Amino acid sequence: MREEELKRDWRRLREVVKARWPKLTADDLAAIDGDPAWLVDALIARYGIERAAAEREWRAFAAHLGNGKTGPFETLRVDARDALEPGAAKVRAGIAELADGLRALAREAGTLGSERVHELAGTARDTARENFAELGDRVEGSFERIGAFVRERPYTALGLAFLAGWLVFGRR
Q: Of 57, 102, 114, 134, which residue is most buried, by most CB within 10 angstroms?
């Protein structure tokens, strides 16, 4: 969405802006009157964020409303990837580390006696428990970040949920 479209459609978009940033007051919305610079200034004042962050918020909001350069779900896909990729990378790394450990254990089991294999299996079990506990903490952290994402961008989260539902159930 370009600036002139925001100014032209301000009456319609005013409620969408208010829903996206609930700390904005009626006076703020009247002062903004479709001007992105005033919107950025209001975000800085009401949310106490830096100008660069406020401008990113405005650009993300404008992109979701449609800037004509991307598909209708492109920004949702990018936001979802950015939010979920760090956690997914950690899960992949944990699984790869576990697989490497199991392969090493299998190689050693072929050359060692049963007592040593039993000892190594116990060590592997303990290591796996520690790694899965750490992985659980990482996943929990990812869920906290996802929760924060949903609280910060409820419409984006709703769009992602709709898109996921459509991908899973709608394309039959």
A: 57
